């Protein structure tokens, strides 16, 4: 990079660019003053390039003429609108500008690095966010009333004995097919209600964790033998488990606060006068 | 942040692709049904055999020009909060909570035309609010309101811009607002949203000079990244131009699909056998249509589009929630060209005669609610157009206030609109998809595969598979779904012939929080006709071999209490079915229809709560149902 800066050709190019830029600013300034609208060679090239990238072809003479007249029309109208102050009393224009400024600020705002104590304090203050609903992890073997008919209850009892026998076959090879999953991990009870109905969910929530298969439990679809692997009441997750989420939440909040502070800084530079509010 | 999100979803897409590839086993001799491992990066709940997820693909908020005039002030944020289970307010003042618990996915599809313009017209300080039209639109004079509103509707229909209202920055910023809300609420593994909008093309105008006409609307969904702006009828009213634009967006990496809806009131235009401009259809048209519109919304509040009794005189269930008046009009829509089943038949005819099928689509459902929250339950119905049909008397389920006898019901604007429109709408509908996980990529892939089904509100789950190798013992195999995928194709796919008769597995369970199932049917469509077969009956019965009908299962409803007879109907129905009328050399389209036991229609629930008799002009009961995407049998070459 340094060696490049010593190249005379680069000096020349940079100087040329500067002249160009100054010239650009000057012509714009002049245009503002005397009511001239200048379409520079660079503008023309930009329009042609944009056209080519959008349509995949170079613009024809007529295309160029249309683009130039559109551009002149937009520039003239927007200058006229500004001259008449239309940009000043339009809530939507004002909101857009304020929005753009907010975006600009939020890129600049910096947040400090949180220490352990800060994160723990955040966690303690937002314990609800880190509370999980009651959940259950279970496997189930389904018996379809349509397939078993009158022997449904007896078949369920037999199958339960098979599942709890010392050398039980793989549970996944037993029972009837079930259209949904046969094993669920950490399923919130309200999801159990949605999938299996309230009666099944209520019974399932009351079953204890144990190695043995339990049931049968009745659902809208038939009977289920159930292996409750874990049944977790509503609980607050330990800080260590959710540390990453705590940090992300804290950062989001800190960034929001920093942005608000940056906006406040700007607002503070203005003296605010509200008529009738003295 | 957005960049990171996009990167993450791109990674997910890669993972999903890999997953789909490895999931298809090369050999099918699986002795122990061990579950395939979830791919890296999969969300909790991932299931290689696919889960059923339910959502609504059709929701409007205040940013829609018509919703705002219906006094809807709920935003896209409110809509997503509703879908996740929170209670929001209806414009008529009561609470709305999603029936059946939180949904898995949800999509705000505001009208792209004049998106966000009416809210801006009603905001003091904006240029738009100073227009004479704004003063009329938000006046207290119903005639002025109607005239101002019809002017906007007429422009949406004709595509001729009202320059004063066509404020591009406002429209694009409202679009970005909806995109931002979709981004904010999308949570992989928990809740899926898509950036989407409605393209509001209307054909065959009536003589009202307003919005009235035939419905050619479609909802456009973006898989991930949304474009800067939405292509609307103010760009072109021709849906084929929309497809061109979608093709361009796709070439730039923004994948999308469009889902047409309410073909039932399209005046025969949705599935007409000509292009928009009246030219003959050709292979290029069919290919472009199917690339952009693989799905059709078959049921929603404004009626069902499956079939019509005039088209299907031998289908005893065809006369179901038929609504046939053009949008905002009392003019009756043409039947031919307006229904899905007939389109399947015409598609096969075109395929056989000319070698292309523009109607090779799958099925989904939506509510088209304009109040941010969908009404899916007959028991808790609020229809869809805000203060216009928010109360029972406005929709004709109970007489006008102060009247108890239907004989005394006066004739006025409210009762006429109820008679023509609102009393003939009903609680509906949802889309079910079979997808590995609840993410944008997995659900969009299911849309593309057409592994979708539509329901009229309840969340019954239905699977449909086809193969030449299925055997009866598979029905008892604990890993039935895995075997069915391994040895056949699911709903939405083509089944290419081998010379043998295809075998189908049709399998459904009821919504645990709704009524039991009465029967499962297969609807078969060929170029020469259609047949409805009952294939699984509740109560352990089998269909009659000659009539293909289940015996009466004894289900009944007491319409004074809406209680149903207990002990009838099934929680689960499944069967292996072979078409008894199969012809090896003939193309055939097969889809499944699942029927619940009869229950009270919404209008009966409301009459009972009001203590007045049900409106004698309306059916007292309904039979909720699900429709799957078809499996297309293609004869061996």
TrEMBL record, chain A:
Any GO molecular function: peptidyl-prolyl cis-trans isomerase activity
Record keywords, A-Z: Isomerase, Rotamase, Signal
Keyword Isomerase in record: yes
Catalytic activity: [protein]-peptidylproline (omega=180) = [protein]-peptidylproline (omega=0)
Superkingdom field: Bacteria
The protein's Enzyme Commission number: 5.2.1.8
Protein name: peptidylprolyl isomerase
Species for this entry: Hyphomonas johnsonii MHS-2
Lineage: Bacteria, Pseudomonadati, Pseudomonadota, Alphaproteobacteria, Hyphomonadales
From TrEMBL, chain B:
Record InterPro entries: DUF3604 (IPR022028)
Gene3D superfamilies: Metal-dependent hydrolases
Pfam families: DUF3604
Origin: domain of life: Bacteria
Protein name (Swiss-Prot/TrEMBL): Lipoprotein
Organism: Hyphomonas johnsonii MHS-2
